[in-house]
Design a protein that fits this description.
13% strand; 7 helices; alpha+beta; two-stranded antiparallel sheet; two-stranded antiparallel ribbon
């Protein structure tokens, strides 16, 4: 990272190891201005978002289509997370969401509004997961009550709520750890020591 930062707008050779194969690739670095200083940049940047205007009926159809795509992507992500145990390192918490929001805001209003829409959809879907402390958990208890035709015992509700709190707290700790790792806080701290 230090080499990249100190070589803006330069062609560098990278040695890359994939499995057992080692090869060299020439890469042209970009440059960005940080604090009035030009530094090297290597990464992927999305294209600028464009604003499309729709008539009200077409806007509703386009919004429903986009929402459906987001729900499908969310479902695939959750399935990969649960079945394949992949993606835990990619989960973001409040710090990561704040960082992504800042990046989206820097790309323009359209990107920021799109991100807010995606976050709203994801938050709504996460809230429907049948973990007792979430709305999905309450719906789960209501379904059980409908099946057994009597209220769920108070002890079972309390145990479920404790389990839900433990799951949510564990997810919070995991996502915060991921965010701090991505931000380099642990590397900075170990380097400091």
């Amino acid at each position: 990272q230090g080499i990249i930062l100190s070589h803006p707008d330069t062609l560098l050779d990278f040695t890359i190891k994939r499995g057992e194969q080692v090869f060299t690739q020439s890469v042209t670095l970009g440059d960005v201005s940080e604090g009035g200083e030009t530094v090297g940049h290597l990464g992927v940047v999305g294209t600028d978002s464009t604003l499309r205007r729709y008539a009200p009926p077409a806007a509703i159809v386009a919004a429903a289509r986009q929402t459906g795509q987001e729900i499908s992507a969310w479902g695939s992500g959750i399935a990969t997370l649960i079945v394949d145990h992949k993606g835990l390192k990619d989960l973001s918490g409040p710090l990561g969401i704040a960082q992504i929001t800042g990046q989206a805001a820097a790309m323009g209003v359209v990107s920021l509004v799109s991100l807010i829409a995606v976050l709203s959809i994801n938050l709504g879907l996460v809230n429907l997961i049948p973990i007792p402390i979430l709305d999905g958990g309450h719906l789960f208890f209501y379904a059980i009550e409908a099946i057994i035709r009597r209220p769920v015992p108070e002890q079972a509700r309390d145990a479920g709520l404790r389990f839900g709190v433990a799951v949510i707290f564990s997810l919070f700790l995991l996502t915060t750890f991921n965010d701090l790792t991505r931000l380099g806080a642990f590397a900075w701290f170990t380097h400091l020591l």
